[in-house]
Design a protein that fits this description.
mainly alpha, 6 helices, 3% strand, two-stranded antiparallel sheet, single chain
C-alpha cells in the first residue's frame, strides 16, 4: 500500500483543460501546416510557431491558465467537472513542446522550407492529436521513463493521466 501524500492544488492541473488546449493548438497548427504544404505559404507557420513558443513558455513557467491557449481551453471546459492530474509530467511535455516550437520558429524564420519544417510540424501535430483525442501524453510517458531510471524526480502527487506515474514492475521501462 502506498503512503498517503498531501497534495497541494498547485501541483495538479485539470486534464480536461490540458486536452482542450492540445485540441486548440492542433487546429491552429493544422491550418498553418496545410497552408505550408498545399499553398507553399510559410508565413502562417512562422506566426503559429512563434505564438506556440510563447504559449508553451507561459504554460511551463506559470501553468496552463496563464497561457492564451490554456485560458481559452479553461473557458471551454469550465462547466465540466475537473479531472486533476499531476503537473510535473505535463510540464515536462510542455517543455518538449516549447523546445520544438522554438526550433520551428528559428527554422521557419530563417527561411527554411520543404520537408524539414513540415516534418517537424507533422510530428507536433501527431503529438497534439494523441493528447487531444486519445488522452495519450507521450511527453508524460518519456517523463515516466526518466523517473524510472532516476534521471527525473518522481511527482509527489502520483495522480497521472494514462498511467504516467505508474512505476510498477510490469510497466515498460521499469528495471
Amino acid at each position: 500500500m502506498q503512503p498517503t501524500i498531501a497534495v497541494r492544488p498547485s501541483s495538479l492541473v485539470d486534464e480536461r483543460t490540458v486536452r482542450a488546449a492540445a485540441g486548440l493548438t492542433l487546429v491552429l497548427g493544422a491550418v498553418a501546416f496545410f497552408e505550408a504544404l498545399l499553398a507553399k505559404d510559410y508565413l502562417p507557420l512562422r506566426i503559429v510557431t512563434a505564438f506556440f513558443a510563447l504559449d508553451f513558455a507561459l504554460r511551463v513557467a506559470a501553468g496552463p491558465q496563464r497561457s492564451p491557449v490554456g485560458a481559452v481551453a479553461g473557458l471551454l471546459v469550465r462547466r465540466l467537472p475537473p479531472e486533476p492530474v499531476s503537473l510535473r509530467p505535463k510540464r515536462f511535455a510542455w517543455s518538449l513542446g516549447l523546445g520544438m516550437s522554438v526550433a520551428m520558429t528559428g527554422i521557419t524564420n530563417a527561411g527554411v522550407t520543404g520537408w524539414l519544417p513540415r516534418g517537424i510540424c507533422l510530428l507536433c501535430l501527431t503529438l497534439m492529436w494523441l493528447e487531444a483525442v486519445l488522452g495519450v501524453c507521450l511527453g508524460c510517458q518519456v517523463h515516466r521513463l526518466l523517473v524510472a531510471r532516476g534521471i527525473a524526480a518522481q511527482d509527489p502527487a502520483l495522480v497521472c493521466a494514462d498511467g504516467a506515474c505508474d512505476l510498477s514492475p510490469g510497466r515498460p521501462g521499469r528495471s
